[in-house]
Amino acid sequence: MEQLLHYIQVVGYWGYLILFATIFLESFPLTFFFPGDSLLFTTGFLASQGYFNLILLILVYFLASVFGYIASYAFGKYVGHIVLQKDGFWWIKPKHIEKTHQFFEKYGVKAIVIGRFVPVVRSFSPALAGAGGMKYSKFSRYSLLGGGLWTGGLTLGGYYLGRIFPNAHIYLTPIIVAIVLVSLLPIFFDYISKNK
Prior knowledge:
Elements lengths: L1 H10 L2 H12 L11 H12 L5 H31 L9 H14 L3 H4 L6 H11 L4 H29 L7 H23 L2
């Protein structure tokens, strides 16, 4: 942990660019494995300890999430059908696409907002919205709303945890593991319900 904090201090403002790129790229099917929830929460916590500027952090994440979704939507609209219809393109499995389709069927356009909080679905939904012909005006409205709730909510959650428990950095690793596990719960429950 000490080494991580040292690197954060060394890179300075370049760190924000790295964080922007990470959240931007997580919006694409090919990079669905990039960290999302855990990164927002952890850096929010680090902002409470003075390692990041909270307002700048949330702004960077919000812009990255919105621009990432817009770019992924365009990808889906123009070339996504080629990738998404392949049977197991690289590490993209048909089950990932099917899961996101089912999510859309259940929630409709609200899937753009709700899907922000579900790993894998978060990365596939904008491309599928583009490939499926969702109107851009509708997509962009829900993308802005979802991006704001997701980036603001999780980053502030980490920040306030750090403010309430100043020595929480001692427990940061278990907290990150807990966040990852909680974010995977929807996928776990979905798997259980399908295999009953």
